Every structure is written in structure tokens, then in C-alpha cells.
Amino acid sequence: MVRKLTAAATALATLVVSCAPETSQPMKVRALVLSSNGEYTPTEVELKTVTHVASLEGKVARFVGSASIQLSGGDPEVQAATTEDALRRAMTKDSGRSITASFIPDAQGVLTPADFHSWNVTTTYYNLERAWEYFNTVANVPQAELPQTPVYYFPEFILGELSDKPQRDNALFFAPMGAFMVLPFDTLQKAPLAINASILTHEYAHLVFNRRVFDGRALPPPLTAWSQDGFTPGLNVIKAMDEGIADYHAYVASCATRFGCNTRVLSTTYDDALVASRDLATPRCMDALTYNQLLNANLAAAAGLEYRVGTLIAHALYRSAGTEAERQALVRALVAAYSDPDGNKYGFNQLASGFLNSQESFTLAVAAKAIVQHLPAGSTLQAQVCNNFVNILQIPAAALAGANACPASTVPGDCPSIYSTP
Ligand SMILES: [Zn+2]
After folding, report:
1. What is the pLDDT of residues 13-72, one digit of tens each?
2. Parent domain of 346
3. What spacing in Å lies between the alpha carbon of 171 and ligand 1's midpoint?
4. pLDDT 10s digits, 66-87
5. Which residues form the signal peptide (predicted)?
């Protein structure tokens, strides 16, 4: 589909505007959007925050092409960096340059991207703008906390710990640079990651989590301190919360799209088995083995633990909110629980900082209780979250009880108990 459009665009090359003036907002463009039948279709949409059409720069994102970003522990420039700004400079081997997208205007002034990369960046900006608007208007995160973020587009991105070769087939929020990375593809050909709105919302959720829980730090102290230990129980929990809640945000944001509520966050990009393993709607329960890993494993050694536990968390949240009003109240409670200096209901930020030298105290129960305490006190929603945390996550009810926490009526559900042998 993209190929055919590109051919048509090339034929109309004389009409291409590649260096358009500043736009009067909003800008009408065509982007690749998941339609109600589950296919990515060129769709007329509005970009509300773009200020420079050709470079696709606006309030939400600023694209940077041709950059080289490299992180390797053996790099003398990285080793010499003593501040996070210096670290970001040391990782930036080529700072890149602004991009130029090409569009064909139609008689109504709607801009159609003229080539594959123009489709890709336009759709990426659209998806990021939708995620930004979701966090601002649904989750109530002030715009001041959601600043313009660099998007490194098709950079040379090397993580020395993983490989000497540039990373491919990914779109991610990369906290050490405070930026998004949209990487070149190699094997993933189904739907490029950046075109997948749910994946970009999941990544945008990582940005919000980083800003609130870790004060936007490139190398958050809880993560760097906790990862030094042999067993990493606190790291396991906070990463599982980050991943699971990111999937839940992607799901709730999807409910406002043409396609509708999408519990299969990775759908259309990855293979069916991986998509199913992260489906929020599939019934699942914490088992003794996973719970034991959460307490006694090292995250670097326990492959995918944060996603397995994260999906349990996302499923518990999914089961707790049945209406749009409940979903929205729940996401507001989640982002409120990221950071709260109130000593009666500390957020993840304050809890993690307080347990910097005792990560075993940042338990699944402690993090779950912070979420419960930020839900409307005594609400049906709060009671449902309590029941699902006790049942699906197998958190002892007593650990969630307390002021503005779970009611005494919290009871076990249909999941087998991991505390008694059957
Ligand atoms: Zn993630």
C-alpha cells in the first residue's frame, strides 16, 4: 500500500512542497491510521501542535535525522562524563540535523506525504501528539511536564552492552538521552513500529514515568543503585510497574481511536505468540515461580520478567475498570501515584528514593498500595482494584489495608493461592 502511494507521489513530484513556510495550526495531513477493520489506511487527520511543516517540528516533538548515538561502558568519553548533560554529549557521536518531509497538497489544502519516510515521520508525529494529548487531557498531566522531546529518526544507535552493530527494528523512549528513537528496520516488515499508535503510546508512557518517578533523570539513582545488587527485587517491581502501566495507558488511549479499545498492544507489528503473551484481556494469575523470581531474581538474568509481571499488573487494571469513566479515573490515579510527597500516601518516586539502600522494601504490595491510595476513597473502582490486586497479583489483603486503602471486604478470587499447596 505504501509502495503504491509512493509511486503516485513520485509522478506528481512537481507539486511537492518540500520547504513549506510556517503553518497556521492546525495542519491537515494524511497519516497511516488503524481503521475500524484493523488495517492501516491513509486517513485525513489534524496535527494541532506542528509549527514547521517540512521539518515536522512542534510542541510535542522535534525530529533529528542522521544522528549517531552510542552508549558503551568502555567508551573513554562516556567514562569521563561526570554530569548527565556531559553523558548525553558523550553518547552523541553525531548530533544529526533536522529532517525534510515532502508533501503534496490537494485542492482542500490537505497535505499527503510524498514518499515512504514522509509517511513514516508524519504518522510518528501524529501518534506522539495523540499520546501527548491523552496524558494531558485524560491523565491530567500538565503540559509543562510534557515538553518538546527529540525524536532520533533512523539514527545509528549502538548499545555496546548488547552488540557492536547498530540496533534495528525498534521504537523506544531512551531515558539516557531523554529522547525517542525510531530505528531502521531489518526484519520487521508487517507494520513499522512508529506507525503503531499503541506502541508509541506505551513508549510515551515511559517518558511520563521517567519524568515523574525519576525526575527525568538520564540515569535514575534507584535504577543504578538497585542494579548493582545480586538480587534485584525492587528493580524487578519498579520495572514491572513501568511496563505494565505503559501497556494499560496504551489500551485506555486506544479507546478513543477509530479502531476502538485495543487490548493487544503489540498487535500488527509482532508475531501472534508475542502479541497474545501481552494481551490485557487474557485471564492470568501470578504463580509461585514468577513470584519467587520477583523476590529472588536479578532482572538482568531473568529474561522478560518485567513484561511477565507487567502483563499481570495490566490485566489486573484492565479487569478493574469496566466503563470509560472508570478507566479515566484509574489512569489519573496511576499517574498521581507516580509521585506524591504526602507522607500518608507517598508515590513511587518518594518510596524508591526512601528505599535507595534497601530495595527489598520496594515490594509489589508497597507499589500496589500507592496506586490504591490514589483512587477515590471508598469507590467501587477502588474496591475492584483491591480485589484484582489480591487475586491476580496474589498480594496478601492485609498488605493493602489501611487509611484510604483497601476495604476489609477484599476477598480472594478465582486465582489459585500461591501461599498454600493445593
Ligand atoms: Zn516498555
Report:
1. 334 444 454 555 789 999 999 888 888 899 999 999 999 989 999 999 999 999 999 999
2. 200-415
3. 10
4. 999 999 989 999 999 999 999 9
5. 1-20
Q: Which residues pair with 64 in a beta bridge?
A: 152
End-of-domain residue from the set 195, 224, 241 = 195
Cα(324) to centroid of ligand 1, in Å?
24
Cα distance between residue 356 and residue 176, in whole Å: 20
AA identity, residue 323: T
Q: Are residues 114 and 227 in the same domain?
A: no
The answer to whether residues 75 and 94 belong to one domain is: yes
How many whole angstroms from 202 Cα to the centroid of ligand 1? 6
Closest CA to 241 of 281, 282, 294, 193: 294
Cα-to-centroid distance, 394 and ligand 1 (Å) = 23
- 203: CA distance to ligand 1 center in Å? 6
For residue 206, the CA-to-ligand 1 centroid distance in Å is 7
Å from CA of 172 to ligand 1 middle? 8
Cα 92 to averaged position of ligand 1 atoms, centre (Å)? 23
- Rounded alpha-carbon distances, angstroms, from residue 150 to 203, 302, 391, 399: 13, 31, 41, 41
Let me know: does 155 contact 181? Beta carbons within 8 Å. yes
Say whether both 172 and 311 belong to one domain.
no
Cβ atoms 249, 134 nearer than 8 A: yes
Residue 172 has pLDDT above 90, yes or no: yes
Tell me the CA–centroid distance for residue 243 and ligand 1, in Å: 5
Q: How much of the chain, in percent, has pLDDT values that exceed 90? A: 76
Report residue 346: phi and psi, to 5°: -55, 145
Residues 178 and 210 in one domain: no
Q: What is the pLDDT of residues 194-210, one digit of tens each?
A: 788 999 999 999 999 99
